[in-house]
Amino acid sequence: MALESISLQPNQQWNSDLGSLSVVHVVDRQHPRGLKVQLLVAADGEENYYDLHEGDTFPVAGAPWKLDRILTHDDVRWTVLLEKVT
């Protein structure tokens, strides 16, 4: 079964043969689109940072993924949900 979703929390890095992903920051800057996530994607020998809001897309090893949701549990705990775009 192919990987379809990834869940990330603070101080967590996700690793697989596709690459590595981690959330650098979750920031609330009173943006009209809500919370912003800075995501680090290390794949294909490159490291790329992406500033994302819910619904934004980014590549992982040539495949499109999207920031599906940001769940906040309190001021310092959150979960970022990523989904592969099919």
From TrEMBL:
InterPro entries: DUF6406 (IPR045642). Pfam families: DUF6406. This is DUF6406 domain-containing protein. It comes from Actinomadura fibrosa.
